[in-house]
TrEMBL record:
<keyword id="KW-0694">RNA-binding</keyword>
<comment type="function">
    <text>RNaseP catalyzes the removal of the 5'-leader sequence from pre-tRNA to produce the mature 5'-terminus. It can also cleave other RNA substrates such as 4.5S RNA. The protein component plays an auxiliary but essential role in vivo by binding to the 5'-leader sequence and broadening the substrate specificity of the ribozyme.</text>
</comment>
<keyword id="KW-0540">Nuclease</keyword>
<dbReference type="InterPro" id="IPR020568">
    <property type="entry name" value="Ribosomal_Su5_D2-typ_SF"/>
</dbReference>
<dbReference type="InterPro" id="IPR000100">
    <property type="entry name" value="RNase_P"/>
</dbReference>
<comment type="subunit">
    <text>Consists of a catalytic RNA component (M1 or rnpB) and a protein subunit.</text>
</comment>
<keyword id="KW-0819">tRNA processing</keyword>
<comment type="similarity">
    <text>Belongs to the RnpA family.</text>
</comment>
<keyword id="KW-0378">Hydrolase</keyword>
<keyword id="KW-0255">Endonuclease</keyword>
<protein>
    <recommendedName>
        <fullName>Ribonuclease P protein component</fullName>
        <ecNumber>3.1.26.5</ecNumber>
    </recommendedName>
</protein>
<dbReference type="GO" id="GO:0004526">
    <property type="term" value="F:ribonuclease P activity"/>
</dbReference>
<dbReference type="Pfam" id="PF00825">
    <property type="entry name" value="Ribonuclease_P"/>
</dbReference>
<dbReference type="InterPro" id="IPR014721">
    <property type="entry name" value="Ribsml_uS5_D2-typ_fold_subgr"/>
</dbReference>
Amino acid sequence: MKNSESLKKNQDFQKVYRNGTSKGNRYLVMYVLKNRYMKNRLGISVSKKVGNSVVRHRLTRLIRESYRLNEMKFDNSLDIVVVARPQAKDRSYQEIESALMHLAEKHHITGKNNDEKISDQDN
């Protein structure tokens, strides 16, 4: 994550939960909040309800890698918290990546949507 950092502190997670907007799909829930930094900060939460530590860490790695490979598509200056739902447990990388990008589009934080907005304003 060259343009991003991790959210590590509980108070940062709580701030995003309280003040951010949330959208969800079958496998993930994403909370997004603007921050004052020039880079994104990604936090990942996987509850014990999802599975044992091996399962939770695998899901964490899948989500982090999905974000890393699509990082250039995201807007800057965002705090993003991704919460894995129990249904995400046995999913493939492609399904997790698809779910993550679907939520990013729902939040309108991908560059693709920004290009459309800019082109609409030019007309």
